[in-house]
Design goal:
Helix content: 25-40%
CATH topology: Rossmann fold
Number of helices: 6
Mean pLDDT: 80
Number of domains: 1
Shape: globular
CATH class: Alpha Beta
Low-confidence stretches: 13-34, 175-183
Radius of gyration: 23 Å
Amino acid sequence: MIPQSMNPNPTRMKTTIRLAVFMPLAALLLSGCAAARHTTYIDPQFDFGSIERVAVIPFENLSSDQGSGKYVTRLFFTELLAQKVFDLVEPGEVSAYIASHQGMSDKTAELSIEQIKDMAKSLNVQGIIFGSVGESSELRSGNMSTHVVSIDARMVNTETGSTVWSSSVNTSGPGVFARLMGIGEKTRGNASRGAVQKLIGSLVR
């Protein structure tokens, strides 16, 4: 016979079951407030250990948010530098090289293999990172506002001109549950930094 103190309490069991079902669901709903679509490609044949020095080209701004290209470029440079994986060319040196080559500033994402090799030789790099900001805007829902961003980045092997890493992050606004709870608001800085960290996290593992 089971002692009275060891008899299961039906009420307590029901509460435990409800919590076990509700908590994962709540976590899923809450995570929706910071949801982001993230796609990454990595060349499985490429030896990333061969890259010691990298140049980050100023990100193109394809959004209507003026200045977001420069802002995201600075964020990306700082976050990548903090990883201490690559030696990065100073932004001023990169800008000076681009400015010295007529017409390059408008077509940095469409450089030929010859232009890539020339840049690599001049800047002494083994990898070049290009990027773009596709969207950077404020999303409002009632009294709540949040910032959504879409950022793409890719690294090119300077010997072949081929893309060895490519990643895209597209953040979304808060989900229905987050709006009801009044949570999930993000500034441009928070949204952009989070997206950049996801990008770099897929490159530096």
